[in-house]
Amino acid sequence: MPRNALAIYWFVAFSYVVGSRLAVRTFLRQHLAPRLTHQNVIAIYGAGKTGAKLAQAIRVSDKYCAVCFFDEKESLNNHNVAGLKVFHTTRMPALVKELGIGLIVMAIPNAPAAHRRRIMHDANEAGIKVRTLRNVIDLADETISPQSIREIKLEDLLGREPVPPQVDLFARCVQGKNVLVTGAGGSIGSELCRQIMAQKPAALYLLDHSEYALYTIEQELRAHFPDVAIHPCLGSVCDVTIVERVLQDGRIDTVYHAAAYKHVPLVEANMAEGIRNNVTGAQVIATAADKFHVQTCVLISTDKAVRPTNIMGASKRIAELIFQAAAQKPCTATTFCMVRFGNVLGSSGSVVPLFRRQIEEGGPITITHPEIVRYFMLIPEAAQLVIQAGAMARGGEVFVLDMGEPIKIVDLARTMIDMAGLEEKNEENPDGEIEIRYVGLRPGEKLYEELLIGNEAEGSAHPRIMRTTEYSIAPEMLEQLIGDLTLACGSGHSESIKEAMREIVREYGPQSAPQSDRELHQVSEASLAVQVGNLK
Q1: Choosing a second label site near 515 at 20 to 30 A (CA), which of 87, 228, 483, 501?
Q2: CA distance 388 to 166
Q3: What is the pLDDT of residue 525?
Q4: DSSP string spanning 59-122?
Q5: CA 339, CA 116: separation in Å to the nearest integer?
Q6: CA distance 278 to 262
Q7: Mapped to the 3 state alphabet, what secondary structure does 368-424 carry?
């Protein structure tokens, strides 16, 4: 035998083993696997580590076929990553048609919300759908698979990466304690209940005047947390008898007061009832909490309480003053505090459900003003921060949640149009499907919302919670002023009610008539700059 026969044999055998398997795999993929539709031919947006893992996972899947990467980095253009060619994002419209791409998957988990909105808009203009990866936990566990691909949610485009709760703060006021949540059937109240139950309280008491809302949250909690005692209480926070009975019988340790009327135009049209619910309710809760020695009592407030121009905001500012006055009582054993934040995405009173319904009906989307802006936060993050803020309270503070940057409502509307795979109808695009129509500011509505009355806020133990102490009114004086307000509400005369409001909330300034667009724009820009600077 020639000396090199063994080496030649090894090379031929190895080539046969590898080549035969590659040939069979290719044959099975092309001829026996299910045929891919246009929607299953995908491009991966982001040629980084996450994108490479996704490409490798898709390679052994018969659900999708990845054909290329798109990436904004010029240095990656025309390179190969995980066996796929990388193209610059400017070539997306042409390559979508050329390669028959039906779907783009975002593989950039740490991208800011504004970046994701831009990708969504560019893909929509190219006539292609966008999806993203399920969550960051998949990436940490290195378990990326085709099943990790999911639909884009509004939270992905407007939210931000939440900061994990600090365990000691999160559990301090709820774990092993008897907890009462008022307004438990509402958006914030129900999420507070879910977060509290996860910390294993001794018992959770739910108070709400809506029978259906109370029933819904009770059934959900019982299904997910069968080992914790749940006590649904049907009634109003304005009913002293009900509130005192719950606090006494339940031996409540912690109260989260989330019950309030929050819809600005409705409260403006029903002043007396809005004030009775928001002001009297806070008064009843604060008095009862002090009487029955509740350890911690937290008021859920709103950014509309800052320099309010409407009855709802002014009534919530009075509720804050009530809690501040309760904290000033020398013999109180209760720690009172307030947590103030802006809008939460998807809540029952937010614009998101309204816009979604208007898009489903074919438009138009109605917006009060092209320059109107609002702060937004995800409901779970808001509830977590409320619980942690209450744990840091020393008494009488106002905690302000870091809401991030304010978002233009018109940008929110355009994002939702993009998510629906539709185009805005305007002068530049008369063939679009959804028109955006401006209907003018409603009574008491501001172009912008603020989070601070003063100009100072200090940090806290949590990076997204700030602490501030604002002016208060002596308890005796406040009680007298609220008595005058109650009498004015009894008269039903709107001007008398507003005048009584001004006596309590000195910065309350109801808008009598809309300003010009130019004036509104200048005021909103100047105030936003000051507020964002203060928060930073």
Answers
A1: 501
A2: 8
A3: 46
A4: HT-SS-EEEEEEES-GGGTT-EETTEEEEEGGGHHHHHHHHT--EEEE--TT--HHHHHHHHHH
A5: 30
A6: 9
A7: CCCCCEECEEEHHHHHHHHHHHHHHCCCCCEEEECCCCCEEHHHHHHHHHHHCCCCE
Task: Compute φ and ψ for 367, nearest 5 degrees.
Answer: -130, 140
Q: CA-to-CA distance for 376 and 415, rounded, in angstroms?
A: 14
The answer to whether 52 and 34 are in contact (CB under 8 A) is no
**Where residue 143 falls among pLDDT bands split at 50, 70, 90?**
low
Give CA–CA dist 259/209, Å, rounded.
Answer: 9
CA distance 109 to 111: 6
Mean local confidence (pLDDT), 142-158: 67
Residues 6+ apart with CB under 8 A from 328: 396, 472, 474, 475
Residues 113, 157: contact at Cβ < 8 Å?
yes
Q: How far apart are CA 77 and CA 71, in angstroms?
A: 8
d(CA 162, CA 164): 6
Ordered strands of the 41-45 beta sheet: 80-81, 84-88, 65-71, 41-45, 103-106, 129-133, 149-151
Mean of all residue pLDDT scores within the chain: 82
Q: Is 304 an active-site residue?
A: yes
The single residue of 129, 304, 425, 446 carrying the catalytic annotation is 304
**Consecutive H or E run containing 272:** helix 271-275
**Tens digits of per-residue pLDDT, 304-333?**
888 888 899 999 999 999 999 999 988 889
| More confident position, 512 or 80 | 80
What band does 527 get if pLDDT is binned at 50, 70 and 90? Answer: very low
Nearest of 213, 344, 345 to residue 221 by alpha carbon? 213
* Token representation of residue 23: 């040939």
Written as six digits, the tokens of 39 are 């929607």
Each residue's pLDDT tens digit, 224-275: 999 999 999 999 999 999 999 999 999 999 999 999 998 888 999 899 999 9
Which residue is listed with tokens 């106002």?
Answer: 398
In this structure, what DSSP letter does residue 128 have?
-
Tokens of 389: 């803020």
Higher pLDDT, 36 or 82: 82
Compute the chain's Rg from CA coordinates.
29
CA 298 to chain CA centroid, nearest Å: 20
